[in-house]
Input
Amino acid sequence: STPEALVFEGKHDVRSITISGLTSDGYWIDLSNEPSFTTTDTKVKIDSDGYIHPVAVGRTTVKVTFRRHSIDLPVNIKSVDTQPVSFVRDVMPTISRVGCNAGTCHGAAKGKNGFKLSLRGYDLDLDYQTLITDLSGRRLNRARPAQSLMLLKPTQGVPHGGGQALEVDSRHYKTFHQWIVEGVKSDVNTTKRVSRLEVIPNTTEIHLPGMTQQLIVIAHYPDGTSREVTSYVIYTSTLSDVATVSDSGFVTAVRRGEAVILVRYESLYSTSEILVIGDRSGFKWEET
Output
């Protein structure tokens, strides 16, 4: 498994893992979509998507099982304190992930339908001021957060030219909602943005078309902290006829060849190189 152990620093520090298996033919394959994750300890909980959440401080293990094989993943929960939602590290990355500040939406040169955000969130303070002051502050309803236009528009609670961009029970919706509940505070002047992205794996071989590889993305910050941002990243394949990638970082091989998965989080980019080998049965090396 990657990583080989998990460390949680707070209640909202949610993690996932990738699982690899060695075949009888001697090559490694990704099994992230196959194993079952179980624990008998109430210190952690595992959601339907396989994400592991901290519940109580202490050490425990999560058992990962695939057919007759299993491993125990060590888990260390250092804290389950709830940290306030950060405008810089939570809200703005979510706005980018949903696509609100893309060039085809409110990040366009003139915005969309009278509402403009900086392209891909390059100006945090401007975006914050726009959100809280535009339309006389009607985009955010502190008394009744669920009635905020910031939530009603993307969920189609009221007409929205961009269609439905959020599900009401999604993690991204809950981030916006909690930020409003906490008083729509800004930490633009006190919190640094991400400084480095780590993609796991940064290069991988997929042996046959149809086989898959789950990517995990870790954001590293100037203060030395890190967090998993796999579900907040924008993914693009340079050659979708070689390998495709889903919104959750799930790569699927299409044909033999090489492709690069481009990963964008806030203003940073990173890559994962994908080599699809293809069916080489019958191949024999001949000296020339």
User: Anything to note?
Assistant: The mean pLDDT is 88. The two ends are 41 Å apart (CA to CA). The helical segments are 87-98, 124-133, 149-152, 171-181. The first helix runs from residue 87 to 98.
